[in-house]
Amino acid sequence: MRFERSAGILLHPTSLPGKYGIGDLGKEAYNFINFLEAAGQKLWQVFPLGPTGYGDSPYQCFSAFAGNPLLISPEILLEEGFLMHNDLENIPYFNPKKIDYGEVIKYKHSLLKKSFEHFKNNSNGKEKAFDEFCNRNKSWLENYSLFMALKEYYNGAVWSDWDKELVARKRSVLNKWKEKLSDSVLYQKYIQFQFFHQWKNLKEYANKKGIKIIGDIPIFVAYDSSDLWSNKEIFTVDKEGKLTFVAGVPPDYFSATGQLWGNPLYKWNEMQKDDFLWWRKRISNLLGMVDIIRIDHFRGFDAYWEIPAGSPTAQTGKWKKAPGEKFFSTIKKYLGELPIIAEDLGVITKSVNALRDKFNFPGMKILQFAFGDGMEERFLPHNFIQNCVVYTGSHDNDTTRAYFEKAKNENSNIYQHAQKYLNCFNENIVEELIRAAYASVADIIIIPMQDILNLGSEARMNFPGKLGGWWTWRFTWDQVQQNLAAHYRELASLYERPPIRKREEVEIKTE
Questions:
Q1: 396 among known catalytic residues
Q2: What is the pTM of this model?
Q3: In the predicted model, what is the mean pLDDT of residues 27-31?
Q4: How many angstroms separate the Cα of 349 from the Cα of each of 298, 325, 425?
């Protein structure tokens, strides 16, 4: 699918300002959409929106279908009568620029449980809407709500450490626990209801402003997830739920030993038997939440790196073929034309490119990877094609300012190459790199908010392979210069993102 020439910003909702310790779907999210509109932006890209688990990564969630309860806005709950003013009287102090997940989780869930009690006492006319939500999402919500209730009962233990009968999911045992934990199960359904209600309203607001949302779908799911617990037959685990093979990538420019992700892989032969039903539900669910999907690790649909469970690094893996063409053809047959962006970074083969191009999915270009010896010339703007999406950097990179400062301090030729290429010999190299992206032929450009604000390493979002302390960055409005929106609106207009006029074809007459 080809997309309109446009520009956007990458910012996960957790990074929004606000006084509750973490960005949420409340007024600051609406303010950010207003900023996007004022800046001439047509796209807002976010990370996966699921409930995060160990390590707080949005790429390791307890469910591929559920929403993150930490994103629920207390202020909206107050406005809609599901919290009282005294519930929000004693807000703890939170660092406005960094998320302390431990404290935030405690505080936000205390508010959500108060909200749940209000809902049980007075549904404020939402009982019918709640029942409809539960019925509409029954295929994943029943398993997820019980899974999370059980996790709470077992003090957060991984599902494989629960009672053997629960691990095996014996129907009679599941029914007994549903009854035993009925209030906790209902609570989990309630907070999902509130998440999807708030997200739906926010998305509608963005769409009315002419802004589309790009969502993110990690190719793999977490081991400690409702998805695996309730669908063991389609993942690389044995009957007891023990991993047999795990996901990762071989050594590359991110890591000399590769990346050992540890996620279960798919049993593709099993998935083909019902025309990839689980995947169809997953994509359909996300398409109900966002306008465009970025598939993380797209190459895994062509071939994936299979690592024996228990391996110390990813070096022991081997490539295995995946049913990419059949998969996307089947999904298209059921769901129609797919608004997909393919994350095609890393070790990419001709067959990966062929799969991407067969379905006309735009690939990704990272400008940080373009400069210096040994870098990738395909990421230089003069080599771009129109059907691609350009980023200055990704969530796995340092900020662009920090990247070039390091290159400059190390006296590497990365910085000198970038200076010459961009014709920039002052301190505005980040701004000039962004301008180069805007000026390129690429249909879509997405700039991380950290680069929009020209921030350093303190604003880095993630470091691949390093656990803990990441995904914590937040911005504050005092970092946004007064003329910033006008500057980007001018850029978007100057480089026709979107096209502001159609150039008339000129007929050349020869005598």
A1: yes
A2: 0.95
A3: 98
A4: 12, 15, 36
